[in-house]
């Protein structure tokens, strides 16, 4: 109202009294960014609190160049006349700088800044403490320190709860969902997500931003479960919410819809979603470090599903080379396993180009790397592909090694899926059902289900008969 009345000084005064939590409720993120466009810079930078509020909004919006400028201006208020005030302001500056470094993928600088901030932040600066903790946890996820990330997120969660900040609690839980997905813990991820959904309506607030992100995570989980139709419905539901508050996580909604369309064989729609995602990132002035790798990864998957192996090999090689040239940088903190997924697609491209030995070697290395990092879900996919390549899968069947809308790879020439062949090979090696589950990162019940399907498809009743039959068909050679 003050802005509409032509009173920018009054508007800036109101903004200076806003709570940081205000950013995450309703459509306030987009509203604050709009105010930034309408207020003079001299007013926006008139107090450390105003600068910090703007910096948080810009970081949350992935507008990293603007966030950098904003954070640097906070330095204009240093040094403070009293040592305690100087120490406190510097600690809050370090927290913002650490978050910025983390979003750029600058691992060591981010850790140094966040840890230094945590040494001097006061209890009343708990929001900056949360910013540091979540940044450090995401860095740990990106570097394979999942147990440490769990501990940090648990500490952050307790702090958010003790401060009564529902928005922060839910955002931290979203990070915990991401960690569960990395570790292959889908049931735990679903449980966390459902708990978040139950909390939000009870708060009596709109929380459009949080509900939009929840919808995107729900859609991602449904894609992982193979239900492309339900995933698309969830993702579509999140788009309007994300647009209303200028949330850059709309990227995940649009790319998720592109993935769902791709799995359904609609390459044209998938390409349109890619283009819309890129356009939205440009219009919202999002830093390329935050979205480019995710976008390129979906484009590579589209090529794989279309069987364009030569083009996929070229583009995946170029992208993998770029990643190798920046070993000191980590992946975008909201998509920590993307470099490994690019290498998975490169292995499929090598197989599609007839370089089976190279593909096997890359998959073996990838599986070991993912196991070391704790990325059990992707390690299982690499194992699945390795087992499929052992039976000389035809190039035209390689797209079946990507997730499908049914949640299962297509049938092989003998009626067995690649996963069923993997189970059969381990049965032939004398492993128990539990040992097979541990090896393939699937539950005991899933192993038993695969074993029953194997018997039915091979026309036998016992595992010993299935092994004999498989050998006669050349499946275990």
Automatic annotation (TrEMBL):
Domain HTH luxR-type: residue ranges: 409-474
GO molecular function: DNA binding
GO process terms (BP): regulation of DNA-templated transcription
Highest taxon in the source lineage: Bacteria
InterPro entries to which the protein is assigned, alphabetical: Sig_transdc_resp-reg_C-effctor, TPR-like_helical_dom_sf, Tscrpt_reg_LuxR_C, WH-like_DNA-bd_sf
A Pfam short name: GerE
Keywords associated with the record: DNA-binding, Transcription, Transcription regulation
Keyword Metal-binding appears in the UniProt entry: no
Mitochondrion recorded as keyword: no
PANTHER family to which the protein is assigned, alphabetical: DNA-BINDING TRANSCRIPTIONAL ACTIVATOR DEVR_DOSR
Protein name per Swiss-Prot or TrEMBL: HTH luxR-type domain-containing protein
């Amino acid at each position: 109202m003050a802005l509409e009345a032509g009173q920018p000084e009054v508007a800036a005064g109101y903004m200076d009294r806003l709570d940081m939590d205000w950013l995450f409720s309703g459509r306030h993120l987009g509203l604050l960014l709009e105010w930034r466009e309408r207020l003079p810079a001299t007013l926006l930078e008139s107090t450390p609190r105003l600068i910090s509020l703007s910096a948080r909004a810009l970081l949350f919006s992935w507008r990293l160049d603007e966030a950098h400028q904003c954070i640097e201006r906070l330095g204009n208020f240093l040094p403070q006349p009293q040592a305690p005030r100087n120490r406190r302001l510097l600690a809050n500056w370090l927290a913002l700088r650490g978050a910025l470094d983390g979003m750029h993928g600058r691992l060591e600088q981010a850790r140094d800044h966040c840890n230094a901030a945590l040494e001097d932040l006061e209890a009343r600066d708990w929001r900056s403490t949360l910013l540091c903790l979540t940044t450090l946890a995401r860095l740990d996820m990106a570097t394979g320190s999942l147990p440490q990330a769990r501990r940090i997120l648990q500490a952050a969660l307790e702090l958010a709860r003790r401060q009564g900040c529902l928005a922060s609690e839910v955002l931290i839980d979203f990070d915990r969902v991401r960690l569960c997905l990395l570790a292959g813990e889908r049931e735990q991820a679903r449980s966390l997500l459902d708990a978040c959904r139950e909390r939000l309506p009870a708060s009596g607030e709109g929380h459009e931003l949080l509900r939009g992100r929840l919808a995107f995570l729900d859609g991602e989980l449904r894609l992982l479960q193979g239900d492309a139709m339900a995933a698309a419905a969830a993702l579509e539901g999140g788009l309007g919410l994300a647009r209303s508050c200028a949330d850059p996580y709309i990227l995940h909604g649009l790319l998720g819809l592109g993935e769902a369309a791709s799995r359904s064989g609609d390459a044209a729609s998938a390409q349109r979603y890619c283009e819309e995602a890129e356009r939205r990132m440009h219009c919202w002035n999002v830093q390329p470090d935050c979205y480019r790798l995710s976008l390129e990864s979906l484009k590579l998957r589209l090529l794989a599903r279309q069987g364009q192996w030569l083009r996929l090999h070229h583009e995946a090689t170029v992208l993998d080379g770029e990643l190798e040239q920046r070993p000191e940088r980590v992946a975008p903190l909201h998509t920590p396993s993307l470099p490994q997924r690019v290498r998975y697609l490169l292995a499929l491209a090598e197989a599609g180009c007839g370089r089976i030995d190279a593909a096997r070697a890359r998959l073996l290395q990838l599986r070991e790397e993912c196991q070391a990092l704790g990325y059990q879900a992707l390690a299982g996919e690499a194992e699945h592909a390795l087992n499929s390549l052992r039976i000389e899968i035809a190039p035209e069947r390689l797209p079946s090694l990507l997730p499908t809308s049914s949640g299962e790879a297509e049938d092989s020439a003998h009626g067995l899926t690649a996963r069923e062949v993997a189970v059969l090979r381990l049965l032939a090696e004398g492993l128990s059902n539990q040992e097979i589950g541990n090896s393939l990162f699937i539950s005991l019940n899933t192993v038993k289900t695969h074993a029953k399907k194997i018997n039915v498809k091979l026309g036998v009743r016992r595992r010993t008969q299935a092994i004999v039959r498989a050998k006669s068909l050349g499946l275990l050679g």
